[in-house]
Amino acid sequence: MPASDTATLLIHCPDQPGLVHEVTGFIFAHQGNILDLEQHIDPHENLFFMRVEWSLEKFTLNRDAIASLFAPLGERHQMWWKLQFSSERKRLALFVSKESHCLYDLLSRHESGELPVHIPLIISNHETLKSAAARFDIPFHHFPISPSNKVEQEKAQLDLLKHHHIDTIVLARYMQIIGESLINAYPNHILNIHHSFLPAFIGAKPYHQAYERGVKLIGATSHYVTTDLDQGPIIHQDVMKVSHEESVEDLVRLGKDLEKTVLAKALWWHVTNKVLVYHNKTVVFS
Amino acid sequence: MPASDTATLLIHCPDQPGLVHEVTGFIFAHQGNILDLEQHIDPHENLFFMRVEWSLEKFTLNRDAIASLFAPLGERHQMWWKLQFSSERKRLALFVSKESHCLYDLLSRHESGELPVHIPLIISNHETLKSAAARFDIPFHHFPISPSNKVEQEKAQLDLLKHHHIDTIVLARYMQIIGESLINAYPNHILNIHHSFLPAFIGAKPYHQAYERGVKLIGATSHYVTTDLDQGPIIHQDVMKVSHEESVEDLVRLGKDLEKTVLAKALWWHVTNKVLVYHNKTVVFS
Amino acid sequence: MPASDTATLLIHCPDQPGLVHEVTGFIFAHQGNILDLEQHIDPHENLFFMRVEWSLEKFTLNRDAIASLFAPLGERHQMWWKLQFSSERKRLALFVSKESHCLYDLLSRHESGELPVHIPLIISNHETLKSAAARFDIPFHHFPISPSNKVEQEKAQLDLLKHHHIDTIVLARYMQIIGESLINAYPNHILNIHHSFLPAFIGAKPYHQAYERGVKLIGATSHYVTTDLDQGPIIHQDVMKVSHEESVEDLVRLGKDLEKTVLAKALWWHVTNKVLVYHNKTVVFS
Amino acid sequence: MPASDTATLLIHCPDQPGLVHEVTGFIFAHQGNILDLEQHIDPHENLFFMRVEWSLEKFTLNRDAIASLFAPLGERHQMWWKLQFSSERKRLALFVSKESHCLYDLLSRHESGELPVHIPLIISNHETLKSAAARFDIPFHHFPISPSNKVEQEKAQLDLLKHHHIDTIVLARYMQIIGESLINAYPNHILNIHHSFLPAFIGAKPYHQAYERGVKLIGATSHYVTTDLDQGPIIHQDVMKVSHEESVEDLVRLGKDLEKTVLAKALWWHVTNKVLVYHNKTVVFS
């Protein structure tokens, strides 16, 4: 993690010779020093993927100018591209329900300075974790959800998120299906943690499903939320061994450690601008 | 692994106080010294599970007598039980198709003495691995399978298996669905290796399915074969990390290492009498 | 984890036939129902190891009577044995310095009810984490340590620990070597987390040592503290992959996740009475 | 793994702006299409590291010309660089002693086409594995080693290696310390597999050392051989969980699976030109 301010470009486009040379030429022309570059192609689909991060210390363009000057190059090669700056910390809203483990994990990483983000607010459909939020001095907003008020409440949530300039939503064990208005407002910017190794055990009570099937590993999956339940692009997954001795309650308890670390790792990659989404899959330049 | 000859009892039955005391009393009464005992209960279903292994060095009963003397105790408590001896090596038939990695892995473990079994024969629906079998001096039997001859060929296979006193079938990447006659003749004695983390990616081409979904881990699962495809009791599973850089061909290549080690480990537990099957799940006393 | 109250016996002694039968006979004689039993021997040293946990629901002995009635049996077989009750929650003192990650991890597990212990106090040689303790309403005691006051301060700490009936000390990244008076007062009851895969990288700055050596995995080790630095009985270890891209600062950051989970897991086994120490090694009946 | 022929450049040099641009400009100038590029810097030492692989399908330079034309660019920036071609398969000599598991593993990978190398010969200080080599039709050369003949025998081995144009030596559990004449003839081209998680348990009988210390994980490490025993640059490491139930003999048996897969993975990276050595550490562009 470089100490000084950096810029990062994520790119995908049809492949052709000379692309790396041209992009790095743009950076070099303005005195940028590249710190990290990863590029690969998908030969089956003739696609080019790249991430490049460079130091802004001696870079001669100011931030606003970079995008406008890079745009013609991108257009010439039909690039999808995204420019981000390490100094512009992501602004997170944490959505929670009754379980505290992911919330405490993220709040303690934030408080210690490990996780370089702003967390202006916590939103919940229950009041259970109000005191947890208070322990870390983060404003807590209670939005009880019922079938009759769901659309209206999500509209109110969206207003609140916009008011706080939130750019990333983290569903930290939020046990409520998010509606389309929120999803469409934050495409590939809502991270969920699902308590199974997707695509196994989609939907409700995955630990119960895992117990019934007698699997020897339990998992957790962090993915971006799309309108297809548990079907969005996977960012990170991990598993742990379990045995016949574990009850469903044991799986629930043990799985919390997976959920915490998988969500935190996926979020780390998201906030350090390492994740590119293409065709419902992620490229994680880790 | 004890050097001397041992006996092993696997037991499950309704739970009640005194069961461990009574079973160990039977062993102690005949001068048996217990080397290893594991017992637990399933409190939800009130079930008792146990594995006990004892030395036969000073045991005063001969083998044939043990079962007949233990039977009344088992009957009294409605026990399912199974008695096995370390000196009676399992007799394996390896079923293969065209891929050699699991076959070579098992044959080299057998040749070095690591895997304490007999392998009287290899059966295949193709001739591809005939030379591989020949390298390790194991008789190779070719049974080409077509929809029209399948029933007849499996009957011939069954005759051959019985002739060689085979007690365990290992499907070492055998790419042919086994028929009911074989499955019913070897209940919980046919081990398969499926190249995914079951229940994800059941059926054909799991690595292609994994690639399409964009998972970040690939897996392998060894299970006992039942008449429900890929639904039998799971013995062992493992996974490895993959990334966006891997093509389907890379997943296929990388997955071979998982398939080899997961199958070999499941087989190890099977041949050392560590696996008990109950209600389509395994208890692995590892 | 059984809901009702249970008793647990940990035992080691010279091996001989009949020991399991005799111990389980003691339990059965008083109407105890065994929930979980693990026993094995070390054939090289002729040693017997066992853990048995039984329900006290219908047990006819009261707690004080169990130990006195079991003592003659133990003496007869030269047993080391330890009797513990699930209802008697361990009383922990957390020792910390400046790093908050292990502290927050344990406090949030405690607060959510996941970790069944009492935490009457936190002790630190710095004031840095005073506010962290306050967030979770745990009394914080500051004991600044210098070469000149170390003996005296540890005496004061010991008085405080005794006053609060502390039975287990957790060094949650306490960066100060504990003196003999404390160690001898809490034999095999002080858990440390060392930030390396011991015995690699003993002593100070293990992540720097790991970086210098160019290892491809970093680790963490939780062990009981003895008077030999970083040489006590190992309870749990785990590792994670790292690469050439990680700086020392990255290793420090990544390693925190290992430290948290390894310490929490070791502590779980300690407080659920799963750990037996013999000859500077642990038997973890997990 | 691209189907067509590719060229790969590994580079390290002092960092400065424009290096990626210049190297990719060289490739683009001759119609090369880059398939994969990874670059990063070490900010503490101001070092630049890079691997780039490009297709030779439409490349306008022939192989011999590439190096001579690239040389001035490399010299201008004080680069260490290495050019390799996917079509030039590495020529391996396998050194073995009495244990067959790594040998069989590599030979079966080679026979199935998974490992794209030539293996012209096997060298051993014992005759034990002569029949194993014969099974796979690889010439076997027996060089018994004693203190009195060691220098002379290594000279004969070196002659044989040169005669067969061997470029990589794989010590596949060769239990004999290699002399300086061989090491100096193959700098960073001799791969060893050590049966511990280095730097823990350097030297003889690491599983015995691991058992004595009571570690909860055993490991294996593949590294390039230098004149400092077990101190060369580490290419790959992995571990597996063990418990108190495992005897030393169990650790030896279980560890074989680690040794096989760790050595095979390190060798894969070596033969696919993914490994760069710098200051006794490796950069693995995996």
Report a brief summary of the structure.
Chain A has helices spanning 19-29, 63-76, 101-111, 130-135, 150-163, 180-185, 206-213, 248-271, and strands at 6-14, 33-42, 47-55, 80-85, 91-96, 118-124, 140-142, 168-171, 190-194, 217-224, 234-241, 275-278, 281-284.
Topology of this structure?
4 copies of one chain form a homotetramer.
Chain A: E1 6-14, H1 19-29, E2 33-42, E3 47-55, H2 63-76, E4 80-85, E5 91-96, H3 101-111, E6 118-124, H4 130-135, E7 140-142, H5 150-163, E8 168-171, H6 180-185, E9 190-194, H7 206-213, E10 217-224, E11 234-241, H8 248-271, E12 275-278, E13 281-284
Structural account:
Four copies of one chain form a homotetramer. Chain A has 286 residues and is an alpha/beta fold. Chain A has two domains: 6-85, Alpha-Beta Plaits; 91-284, Formyl transferase, N-terminal domain (Rossmann fold). In chain A, 33% of the residues lie in helices and 29% in strands. Chain A is built from eight helices and 13 strands. Chain A has helices at residues 19-29, 63-76, 101-111, 130-135, 150-163, 180-185, 206-213, 248-271; strands at residues 6-14, 33-42, 47-55, 80-85, 91-96, 118-124, 140-142, 168-171, 190-194, 217-224, 234-241, 275-278, 281-284. Chain A has a seven-stranded mixed beta sheet with strand order 7-6-5-8-9-10-11. In chain A, a hairpin with a 2-residue loop joins strand 12 (275-278) and strand 13 (281-284). In chain A, helix 3 (101-111) runs parallel beside helix 8. The mean pLDDT of chain A is 96. Strand 2 of chain A pairs antiparallel with strand 2 (33-42) of chain D.
